[in-house]
Design brief:
- It is built from 3 helices and 20 strands.
- The chain is mainly β and 266 residues long.
- The protein folds into 3 domains: 102 residues, Roll (Phage tail proteins - horseshoe like beta roll fold), CATH 2.30.300; 73 residues, 3-Layer(bab) Sandwich (Phage tail protein beta-alpha-beta fold), CATH 3.55.50; 82 residues, Beta Barrel (Elongation Factor Tu (Ef-tu), domain 3).
- Strands 1, 2, 3, 4, 5, 6, 7, 15, 16, 17, 18, 19 and 20 form a 13-stranded mixed β-sheet that branches.
- A hairpin with a 2-residue loop joins strand 6 and strand 7.
- Helix 2 packs antiparallel against helix 3.
- The chain is flat, with a radius of gyration of 20 Å.
- The two termini are 26 Å apart.
- Pfam families: E217_GP41.
- InterPro entries: E217_GP41 (IPR054496).
- This is Phage protein.
Length: 266
C-alpha cells in the first residue's frame, strides 16, 4: 500500500482549479450502467465570493482523485446547480454535476430509416440527435433492419432497446455514451486486494433479472479511480479470487471517509 497515502483531490472547471491542500473538499459520485445521467455532489468550503461568482451552470467540471502517487479521473460532467450556505463558521458551496454533457433525456423524435440499415448506424444517428458523443459502439449482433426502422417516442429508450436487442448494454459514463456487451469493459490490469486498498472481504450476491441469474460481489475499497462503470478488475482475498466487471457504485469523500464501493458481476 506504499502509494495509498496522502489523499489527492483536484476539481477543475472553467479557469478554476481547487485542491484539497488549499481547501476542504467533499464529494459523493455515483455511477452505473444505464442511460440516465447520474447526479454527483461536490462540496467546497470557504470559497471567496469572487470565486463563487465564477462558477456557472452548464460549465464542464472534472475531478481527479486518489493519492499523490496514484490518481486519476473520477468525474467529468456538466454543472447543474450551485448553492452556498452557512455551515457553522464555514461557508459550504455545493455543486451538483450531471455525469454527461447537457442533453434532453426525455427528448422525443419522429423519424424513419431506410430498409437494410444496420443497428449501429441508427444508434449513431439517435445519439447525435440528442447531443451525446459515443465513446464505444460494439454490438455483438449488429442486426440489419431489413424493413427499416421508425421511431416515434423517446430517443434514449430507443437507443437502449436497440442495444438490448443486439445483445449490448448502453450507459453514460464520464460524459459519453458506451454501447457494448455486458461482459466487456475497460481492463486496467488492476488487482484489488488488501495491499491495493480492499477493505474486508467481497460480499457475494445473486439476483434474478429478465429470467437470468446475475452473480457477483459487493466490494469496498480505499478510493480507487480505476473502478468505474464497466471496469474489469481482479479480486483477490482470502476466500475470493475472481475477475469481475463493475456495473455500479460510488466514490465518496467526507471527513475521514475516502472510499469506493461497487457492485461487480462475474
Amino acid at each position: 500500500m506504499s502509494k495509498l497515502f496522502k489523499r489527492y483531490i483536484e476539481v477543475l472547471t472553467g479557469n478554476l482549479r481547487f485542491n484539497n491542500t488549499d481547501l476542504d473538499i467533499e464529494f459523493d459520485i455515483p455511477f452505473d450502467d444505464d442511460l440516465e445521467p447520474n447526479l454527483s455532489e461536490i462540496v467546497i468550503y470557504n470559497l471567496s465570493e469572487s470565486t463563487r461568482n465564477k462558477l456557472k451552470r452548464g460549465q464542464t467540471l472534472t475531478i481527479n482523485a486518489g493519492y499523490v502517487e496514484d490518481k486519476g479521473l473520477i468525474l467529468s460532467g456538466s454543472i447543474e446547480a450551485i448553492t452556498t450556505v452557512k455551515n457553522g463558521a464555514d461557508l459550504a458551496t455545493t455543486i451538483k454535476v450531471l455525469d454527461s454533457v447537457p442533453y434532453d433525456a426525455t427528448k422525443t423524435l419522429q423519424k424513419s430509416y431506410k430498409k437494410n440499415i444496420k443497428s449501429d448506424a441508427v444508434i449513431r444517428d439517435l445519439a447525435q440527435s440528442i447531443g451525446l458523443k459515443i465513446a464505444v459502439l460494439n454490438l455483438p449482433d449488429n442486426k440489419v433492419m431489413t424493413d427499416g426502422y421508425s421511431i416515434d417516442g423517446e430517443v434514449v429508450k430507443a437507443i437502449n432497446d436497440i442495444a438490448t436487442d443486439c445483445g449490448a448494454s448502453a450507459y453514460i459514463s464520464r460524459g459519453q455514451i458506451y454501447v457494448r456487451p455486458i461482459k466487456e469493459g475497460d481492463n486496467h490490469n488492476f488487482i484489488l486486494k488488501a495491499d491495493t486498498g480492499l477493505i474486508g472481504s467481497p460480499e457475494y450476491f445473486e439476483e434474478e433479472k429478465n429470467g437470468t441469474t446475475i452473480k457477483g460481489y459487493k466490494v469496498k475499497s480505499l478510493l480507487q479511480y480505476r473502478m468505474n462503470t464497466a471496469s474489469i478488475i481482479k479480486l483477490e482475498s482470502q476466500f475470493v479470487k475472481a475477475t469481475v466487471r463493475v456495473r455500479k457504485g460510488r466514490h465518496y469523500a467526507r471527513g475521514n471517509d475516502f472510499y469506493t464501493e461497487v457492485e461487480a458481476v462475474l
